[in-house]
Input
Amino acid sequence: MFERLKGIIQKTTRALAYVGMALVLPMMLLTSADAVARDFWSRPIPGAFELSSYMLSIFVLLGLAYAQQTKDHVRATMLVSRLPEKVAAAIASVTTLLCMFIVAILFWQGIVVACETQCVSDMLRISQFPFRLLVSVGALFLFLEFGFDLVESARKLVS
Amino acid sequence: MSSDPVVTGILGTLLVFVLIFLGMPIAFAMMFAGFVGLTVLSSVEAALPVTASTLWEVASFYPYTVIPLFIIMGSFAGSSGITTELYSSFDKWTRRLPGGLAIATIGACGGFAAVCGSSVATAATMGTVALPEMERFKYDQRLATGSVAAGGTLGFLIPPSIGFVVYGMLTEQSIGKLLVAGILPGVLLTFAYIAIVVAWVRLFPNAAPTNPDQVTWGEKFRALYGVREPLFIFLFVMGGIYLGFFTPDEAGAIGATVLLLISLIKRKLTLPALFVAMTEAIRISVMVLMLVAGANVFSYFMALSTIPMQAANWVATLQVSPYVIHAVIILIYLVLGCFLDAISMMVLTLPVIFPVILALNFDPIWFGVIAVLMMEAGLITPPMGLNIFTVAGVAKNTSVETIIKGVTPFLVAIIVVAVILTAFPQISLFLPGMMKR
Output
């Protein structure tokens, strides 16, 4: 049951990251087109700047959990890799719990801050609300990824 | 809550280091310690929204689009076949020199670094091309792997460079000026690495048997054709930044678009390669920007603790030459480089070290070059040198110990270049000083 749930959640995490990373090409083309249109014809693309900002936010926030799944968030393992497995697992459990604590705050405050915002983009008047809410979406899946890591550490601890 | 801000700041800093050495991901360790510190020095109501707001501000800050764009530019450069062409070009020109293939490796790394911002990508892509060639000619494994690992570090100094982007983000310096400032030191370091290879082969001629094949002048000049693409892209991208036509973000986007077109025209870009390029872009960008978000939360706490200001004031009153303090900072970076990766080292140290540098009246752009140079050293200092492990991944039959032995002489080159740049800061500052904006 747990493994099935984990599989579904991790697939969703990857799907979210694929949505985010697909935006890197439009971001690249839009920024290039904007610069060329401005430098050669003095006609920048209206709203290119803010669209790129929004695309960057989707790209980063939807990739948060995926980066944890692929263990890309940098860690110094020099000390823990030399410790006995059980001690290392106990330490990993504690540090993962601390990560979950701060990510839970990100999730909660992401909703609070998003709900409080009235901001819209300068030119295209697009509301920031749905993009700000992605802080919580990213944090939720990141929390779950850390949760799977915690279970893994706990298993090593009791085995 | 009332507590001594400086004591709280010191305890918070210790907490970060303890958590990092216990294996907590560095970005979250900094964010956690920053949150706890802000709670103690201010209030939990003030600290709570800072985390989410900071993450949003970092994730949606337009200038940070430069990171995924530089990464994808490097990936497209790798897919377009530039690596093989560059290596072949340099090989034709350096074949008769002592250690010719190792020199070609370093030259080609420098060329590839001009279109790629990542040292790991430079070492990995160049390693796959250069190592089999050096193995074929029975090069000493230490020289072969050392030259690839060291050459790869050029990706961090020669623009486009993620190192300068992160330094610019953390210190609010012009990223364009920083990138331009890295050009001449990058060329200097390339020549310093080549000097190390030449000295090595002069001392131990058996380390690099000469390739007996002759190269005609016609072949040499035809080989220059292989340099045209990276040279054109570098001149276009960096020239655009230098002359004020593009911002670094736009330069990254245009460079990536041009390389995408080249890959498509040459029919080198497959769908799996495009997928890998995009995956790499999201993984590295998220990792870097999460570190920046963590560092920003920690910086708010540091600012509240007044430690950076007090450290700067204290250092300014010391009766020693600023260069002694500068040397101490370099030493700290060398030691930290043994344990931490380059970007982590930057986000951990700059909140305190940068105000000290300003208080000592050092030029922030010049220090950016020195800092990035020292981060480069961290990429090849054992036991945590990222490039060492990258090359170990490419050179399957070579032990990490062999690569460490091979890369150590190149560290001398970095130190020598750091000394030269300190003695002659105009090497770094000449080009940015002439920029249009």
About this structure: Chain A is about 75% helix and 0% strand. The mean pLDDT of chain A is 94.
